[in-house]
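Key result, reporting period 2: structure in, sequence out.
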């Protein structure tokens, strides 16, 4: 399987980074082809300067991201939850990379749009200091709703699984190791 991994955390040595490494290593060992990009290493303007009036020319790193999305069969996204949502740079990445005619197309005769990333599945893996229960009860999983339903599924990716790892600041070393093992298991079971 062709898997595109987008790591959207500024620190590769964070727990989020260790989870991503464990996932990628296990997926490669299972024979999957992996393409990984580290969002905070990419060079691009995250601001959609003219809204949706005109397509802003893409920087090389975003062209590569689009090529990875076109190539992949499965998209895996790692990010931390900050202020109940995704990092701002990730939102900018979506705004700039996932635009009309690449990920969706409007049809004048249909109130809906054609989903151009159909045939791909996804997996969102998040970390947060807040517990998963808190993010669900207090914020109604705002980040997941925005990324899964209002972004990836709008573009045609289905199914999109979610693994939320909450309470990271309170995890003991054995619990962290359990999550690293779980990442390897998820990679081995990738659809």
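The corresponding designed sequence is given below.
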């Amino acid at each position: 399987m062709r898997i595109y991994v987008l790591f959207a955390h500024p620190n590769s040595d964070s727990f989020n980074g260790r989870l991503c490494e464990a996932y990628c290593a296990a997926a490669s060992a299972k024979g999957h082809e992996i393409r990984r990009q580290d969002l905070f290493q990419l060079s691009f303007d995250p601001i959609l300067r003219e809204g949706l009036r005109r397509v802003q020319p893409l920087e090389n790193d975003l062209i590569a991201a689009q090529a990875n999305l076109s190539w992949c069969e499965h998209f895996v996204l790692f990010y931390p939850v900050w202020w109940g949502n995704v990092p701002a740079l990730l939102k900018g990445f979506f705004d700039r990379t996932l635009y009309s005619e690449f990920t969706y197309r409007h049809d004048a005769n249909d109130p809906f749009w054609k989903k151009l990333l159909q045939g791909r599945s996804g997996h969102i893996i998040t970390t947060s200091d807040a517990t998963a229960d808190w993010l669900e009860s207090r914020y109604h999983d705002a980040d997941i709703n925005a990324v899964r339903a209002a972004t990836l599924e709008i573009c045609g990716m289905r199914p999109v699984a979610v693994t939320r790892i909450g309470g990271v600041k309170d995890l003991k070393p054995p619990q962290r190791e359990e999550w690293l093992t779980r990442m390897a298991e998820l990679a081995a079971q990738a659809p």
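The helical segments are 15-29, 60-71, 88-97, 132-139, 142-152, 173-188. The chain has a mean pLDDT of 94. This case is discussed further under Risks and Mitigation.
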